[in-house]
Amino acid sequence: MPTMHERIRADLLHKERSLWTALTSADPAPAVKKLSNQEVNLMFPKMHTLTLEDEEAFDEGLKPPFHRFDGYQLDDVRTIVIDLMAGAVTYKVRAVRGNQEYRATGSTTWNQAADGEWRIVAHQETLL
After folding, report:
1. CATH code for the domain of 14
2. Which of 37, 94, 118, 125 has the most beta carbons within 10 angstroms of its beta carbon?
3. What are the start-end ranges of the H helices in the chain?
4. Helix (H) or strand (E) segment spanning residue 122
5. Could you list the residue range(s) of the whole structural domain that residue 29 is in?
6. Whole-prediction pTM value?
7. Is 70 helix (H, G, I), strand (E, B) or coil?
8. How far apart are CA 46 and CA 56, in angstroms?
9. Ramachandran assignment for 26, one of left (phi > 0), alpha (psi -120 to 50 degrees), beta (any other)
10. What is the pLDDT along the chain (128 residues), one digit of tens a residue?
């Protein structure tokens, strides 16, 4: 039977993949909102920080074709258990759309909400 920390790591990795599936979708804002803590900070390259304090700016920042890729791959993934209700995932991401390639490092901090769901507290990407 997996340990508590192994289960948390698996949950965090699953949630990170859910985040990237949302980010690379045709319309990411609704799914990203659902994954986010109310005090979320999203920091993408060449953009201002997105928060839910200004939902209009949040929706505008994630409007299509934001991060619209044909596929993505996470490499050098590390899941870090901060405590039983918080963790972080760090990685390198490679995404492609046609002949265009996107390479970055990424980090997402998650916390477990009262309903038991993992929510994004902060997400950051840095271009390589």
Report:
1. 3.10.450.50
2. 118
3. 4-23, 28-35, 55-61
4. strand 118-127
5. 4-127
6. 0.94
7. coil
8. 19
9. alpha
10. 889 999 999 999 999 999 999 998 889 999 999 999 999 999 999 999 999 999 999 999 999 888 778 889 999 999 999 999 999 999 999 999 889 999 999 999 999 999 999 999 999 999 99
Query: Closest Cα to residue 86, out of 62, 116, 118, 114?
Result: 118
Closest to 125 in 3D by CA, of 59, 51, 42: 42
Q: What is the pLDDT of residue 66?
A: 81
Which two structure tokens, joined as six digits, stand for 45? Answer: 């390259």
* pLDDT for residue 123: 98
* Count: domains in the chain: 1
Strand partners, 41: 122
User: Which contiguous run of DSSP H or E holds residue 85?
Assistant: none
Nearest to 25 by CA among 73, 59, 66: 66
Structure tokens at 15: 């949630």
Contact 128, 105 (CB under 8 A): yes
Helix (H, G, I), strand (E, B) or coil at 16: helix
Assigned token pair, 119: 């929510």
